[in-house]
Amino acid sequence: MSETIKVSEVSEILRMQLVGIDTSVQFDEVGTVLQVSDGVARIYGLNRAEANELLEFENGMKAIVMNLEEDNVGAVLLGPSSSIKEGFTVKRTKRVASIKVGEGLLGRVINPLGEPIDGKGAVTGEKLEMPLERKAPGVIFRQPVNEPLQTGLKAIDAMIPIGRGQRELIIGDRQTGKTSIAIDTIINQRANFEAGNPVYCIYVAIGQKGSTVASIVNKLEEHGAMAYTVIVAANASDPAALQYYAPFAGAAIGELFRDTGRHALVVYDDLSKQAVAYREVSLILRRPSGREAYPGDIFYLHSRLLERAAKINAQQEVAEKMNDLPASLVGRVKGGGSLTALPVIETQAGDVSAYIPTNVISITDGQIFLDTDLFNQGNRPAVNVGISVSRVGGNAQIKPMKKVAGTLKMDQAQFRELEAFTKFGGDMDPVTAMTIDKGQKNSRLLVQPLNNPMSVEKQVAVLYCGTKGLLKDVALDKVDDFQTNFLEMLELKYKVEVLDVIKSGTINDVVTDIIEKVASEVVKGL
Amino acid sequence: MNIGMIPTRYATALLSYAAENKQDEQIYEMAKIIVRNFAEQPKLRAALESPVLNFDIKKKLMLTAAGSISDMVFENFIQLLLTNKRETFLHFIMLKYIDLYRVNNNIYSGKLITASNIDALTEKKLISVIESQKKGILEIHKSVDPELIGGFILEVDNTRWDASIKRQLQTIKNELAIY
Predict the structure, then answer these.
(1) CB–CB of B3 and A69 under 8 A?
(2) Amino acid A352: pLDDT
(3) Could you report the predicted ipTM of this complex, rounded to two decimals?
């Protein structure tokens, strides 16, 4: 036990806390633990317990009711099994599992119960109780996605654009850069935060190593991203029930921002591990198993989670009537907010036709597929543009980007087809050679270093050079130098005339003329 | 998912069979002994679930857990369980039997736990609180638990009225938990 006095131990604060505690006698409905093992307790009694109700053991630990059977209740423990013994008394709390959410969570690392695990003390500020399980907004409370969420990655913002309120799956084998895409997206929101229009980010780490989560926290802190980010961690050593509920906790936090007119991004890394945790809990509860031993409602698990990501109707009078509004949000609802979801799924040997990947692909509004071969060839982010798609598409792009990158996907697809033939050798006609050359240089342009997101105006400028063939006289190994020098010159000499204009949503002949002029100067310099 | 349905069916059958043979009360007492033994001897469940132990050993174990009382109805029941390979459900079956027997005979259970021995008058007052909740035959179980520090706990079936000092201190501890 630490002997250091903590801030919250000031006498006055303790006195206020004591005043707030209700120790009056109440009638509780109780049951007795018959059996506990592997994170699940079977409880005798509790005849009136309800599904998903929160239960409390005599030592303060919580559990959630998952099975209601004729003569016992099966509950998943939200803590270690070793602290619960047979014969323990457990009582109903008569409320569903919820998490206390507030602005004080920003910059903190918490567990799915809302308890901080970063050693920085209690979470401060006003907190609202948000249920972990909640119905998604109905159709009339939504509006189409029409605002971009910039990831800062050229390959994604140009060809697979993501909008606010969209669900875009990041799918690929192990070590292909899935988490890196999510982290870069979070880092890229810093500009919005500094401009006063933050996109609050929630990163949900499910079943990961503690060291991995720690390094992610460090990375976000280095880039100043923790100021607007909450990390919810259910590590590999945590009970399966916590890993199962972690994404719901992340969604509950995101819903606070969404329903109060603000924008939020939630990353679920990764849902494959949540599915495995749910399978474990279901099998221990002896629920019937289906394909690959997953329970029959594994699809519903992901669909009800991902449906909570939405773009809310901007009309206040409509948004206020949102279905299934928690009591804590009544009177605080504002329209126009959004919750964007980036779920991550790990495939085995590139098999996107496996059970869980196909389930989640069918739920989401598009997927970013990361290829191991591309990664090993040095194309990072290793996005396989051919099978990646965003079902929101151009609606999630600013006009300049739509104009510039409109043909990029097709050009790259053509290039990949022709590239296969070059391996056979032989002569090529000039058009084919030009297409291949342009494709190779565009591929090089799309390569981006780790944790180095690029603003959308710079992306537009760079991609304009690529798509308009301004790099035809640049050697392939000089493309990176070209990009660096080009952006430097634009930043130094033409920030207002070019970058700020593009950022405002315009691209005209004046802008394109300057871009072409700068590009030819840089090419000459190389 | 079948854990609830299976014990209910066996318990219903046992109650019916025992009632026909006028042994239902005896089986009720044996069921209470078995439930107590399961709580006190966690290895009993593990032994019944073990695939290594044979039929005879498990039969002897179950009869011993029932208090080694010779009863034809119970022995036949054990035989049925072992034949159908449902011996692992014995605990749940006995609990369900107790429930069904109590409903049939209008019995309800109460528990009075005090921090120290109390005088007869106080005890009578507390028990009358339980009796005022329900009509029927009250089965009261009284015990002393110094860990309560002070106060008492009253339970009627599955409802508990916890007026102990221990609970109040635990509430304060849970609320003031410093992370």
Answers:
(1) yes
(2) 92
(3) 0.81
